[in-house]
Amino acid sequence: MTTDLVTVAAGAASAKSMDPTVVIEVGDLIAITDYFVIASGRNDRQVRAIAEEVERQVKVRSGAKPRQVEGLADAHWILMDYGDFVVHVFDEEAREFYDLEHLWSDAPRLAWEDLELAADRG
Predict the structure, then answer these.
(1) Cα–Cα separations (whole angstroms), residue 46 to 15, 50, 97
(2) Is residue 87 a contact partner of residue 95, using CB atoms and an 8 Å limit?
C-alpha cells in the first residue's frame, strides 16, 4: 500500500509542477521513513498548490492525512509527513540549495511513473 500512496503523491505533485518529481527509497538508510517524494514549484503559490493537491489526492485514495505539515506559512519548503513517506515541496531556490537528490544519491530511486502507468492500465 505504501508504494501505491507514494505513487499517488508523486503523480499529484507532478501534475501541478513543470519540474521533475523524484521518489527516493531511503528506508534502508534511515529509520524514520521509507520514501522521500521531492517536488518543486516556481513560486510560493505553486508550492502551496502542489502540497494541497498531494494532500487531497492521498486523502481521496486512502483517507490518510499527513501526521505533520511544516512550512506552509512561507512556502519555500513544505514538508508533509505521512509516516511511511515524506513529501518535500520546495520552491526552485530551496530545492537547488538543499539538493536532497544529491544528498541521498546513494539511495535508489523509485520509478513511480512506471507504477502509475501500470495502475492506470488496471
Answers:
(1) 11, 6, 18
(2) no
